[in-house]
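User: Okay, second chain of the day. Same drill as before: sequence in, structure tokens out.
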Amino acid sequence: MSAGRGIAVVLGVGGLVAAGFALGRPGARESATAAFEPEVATASPGRDEVARAVPATSAAAVIDEVALARGLASARWLVVGGGAWPDSTQVQIEQDVGLAAEVLGPRGVVLFGAGAGAPVVQVRNGHAVESVTATLGDLFAPRGGRGASYRAPSIAVDAEATAARVLASIRSASAKGDQPLLVVIAGHGEMGESARDNVISLWAGSTISAAELAHTMDGAGRPTRLVVTTCFSGGFGELAFAAAESTADAPQIERCGLFASPWDLEASGCDPNPDRSAQQGYALHFFNALRGRDREGEALPITAFDFDGDGAIGLLDAHTRVRIASDGIEVPTTTAERWLRAHAPDAGTAAEVATPEEDAVIAALSPRVGAGPQPPTEAEVAARLDVLEQQLAAHDAATEDARVAEESASRTVAAMLLARWPVLDDPWHPEFAAVLEEQRGSIAELLAGAPSYAAYLAARDESARAHERHADHTAEAAPVERLLRAMETRRLAANLAAHDREAFAQWERLRACERWVPGIDP
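Assistant: Same drill. Structure tokens below.
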């Protein structure tokens, strides 16, 4: 992938998904995330030790380090993808990495999962798990992915995507050069204590925080473009500042970024279902837009993408297309927006400022919110979002109640089973296999006749429905929040232009950086 005429770093990490449902938002909307996200994102006991022990080179393939170094030295782009473990390396992430590499063309490097040949790509295939075994798994070790299979990447991969490998590759590729480098990372993100503490999750349980990436990029010799498509990816908007410190000046070497979501919101983009027509996600829209196509890959007139009117499709054009066209939960943002919100006064004197991308978003999304013939005001959109936030908070509470009820019901059933067969919660116990084989029929009979098991199934179904409702409501709120942010950005830019010309000039430089047009083939 490439971006502009400086180094382009694209971090494409989709939101975490549990049980097939898009997760909700954190903060006032964090209950669903707390219930489900750690199951995918948090290392299991012992995995930290495993992560530290994993060698830099994947056992799945012998990496030609010399060839890799040469590739990085001449790279126009670097695409990184995958999750911390196979159960978070969904096929959509692989597809997004492949799409990015296809769109961006030659002279690029792909880092993915455990490397070429490693069977870590999770693909939902719907194969059934025997009922007793499935029940025991759900009760004693719930996790996603049991209805999936795993295969090696079907895309070309140069090396594994551990944090150490990614940082070293960015450092090498950005060491010198006048033309930009684009780095693409597709996978998952996690929210930290502050925006600069947000991380992207990479292979073997490793992570890179916004602060760590800033430290690496502060030493770059080339301009950079950063595109992050992960949950909480807006935390990497702190790279608008040196050392990712919001009180600092701009970095010495030009860099900018575009992100699927603000620092405290999730994004979609990690579906184990390989059917692209069933997927949402920033990367799917973004990279198709870069080559003048819609989400389904159909070619459209350039006017559908060229929002700044320069006759070409740049990164910010593609980003704007996502904001307009996506039906997902994304609320995309940029480094320019982050700089603006750090420096612009909320009110006061305003100057005339051209914001064609914000104008396009406002024109496209206003009809979804306005109830009358006139476009809604910023205050009206804010009021609409506030109502949706209150409704979403109620959904959070209902989802949490459903989760608690499911856990309580599962403990009752688990206690009933363990009272008769104490080893059923430990498949590594030397007696487990024999007990399961000999008692399978008795276990099934007990479950079939137990009111507590029926209550558990009902609670589990209600929990699933609660998450579906939460996901639907989050998707309903997303375009309203995109519209409000566009209105805020337009107003704040006008305020900054009148208030602080030096800070405004840096905002304009960031916008120009984000408008960079990568050299791609349609």
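The radius of gyration is 24 Å.

User: Thanks, on to the next one.
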